[in-house]
Amino acid sequence: MTTRLTPELASRLAAIALGHVTREYPNHILHGLEGPDDARTPSELHPVFYGSYDWHSCVHGYWMLARLLRLYPDMPEAQAIRYLFGAMLVPDRVAGECAYFDRPMARGYERPYGWGWLLKLAAELRALEDPTWAEALSPLTLRIVQRFRGFLPLATYPVRVGTHYNTAFALRLAADYAETVGDAALFDLLRQTALRWYGTDAACPAWGEPSGDDFLSPTLIEAECMRRLLPASDFGRWFDDFLPEIAGKQPRTLFAPASVSDRSDGKIAHLDGLSLSRAWCWASLASPLLDTDPRQAVMLEAAHDHLEAGIAHVAGDYMGEHWLASFAVLALTETD
After folding, report:
1. Domain containing 323: what range?
2. Which of 47, 117, 261, 328 could be joined to 93 by an S-S link, Cβ 3.0–4.6 Å?
3. Total-model pTM
4. Is 218 inside a domain boundary?
């Protein structure tokens, strides 16, 4: 039986995130110093998103908590989530985050992965009962929107890796924000960029998948990006050309969950995230297909196999625990 998001599982996942979004150490900082005064602690640099080992993991930990609060507003952890948001998503703290992004050396900070997740969080906050949380975050949200507007026209080529620098994943998350807030110009920029980068791709062999520290499938996240941004009929034609042999379970590498040899190694532990993100992509890509389409059953089976391979490892060693639950919630709640 495929794992479903139940109230009990939601409570367990929420408890994991509540345990790390304000845990300052250990911490991995990718920080450019302009002088000796810039050598500061994580919470001094980032008054909101200083936990969870790194900035982007903290952001998507907040996203996961917002998503679970919306789905289960009476869950046992709901009050703790509301308290967290009320204490952290406030103008003074967000101003500190904005100040960091305003630094000259921060032009490319968290590009594009953290940018996509910040907009995904902003979209989710808008669906919650308290509008002040989204409003408080809005100065940072608008800065990230402007980062996308400035960067995408300059980005001649996509980045097709399976890690943080993957550009398709960022476009996919940003599309949810653009649609939520009704920013048609941003959505069109995302769509036109995706078409420019990926529109002529065909017969993808998925060579090199998985790499040793992937948490995204470059092949599947590109397809999911295009599904999200293109009209259904246009996507159907593109997808037929991009992965023409799915019904025969080809390319084979996309159908086999990755083996994870050491979950205490932060890079190797990425591969549990690969299973979860593939589960999300396979299920989402299958959603528009007709029940009579022979690809649908194959894709849903692949989604099931990858979900079951990854969901058991969202807690344990902190190298995975500080972020994997967010990817589990993607796989469990975003399938179309």
Report:
1. 7-32+39-333
2. 47
3. 0.97
4. yes
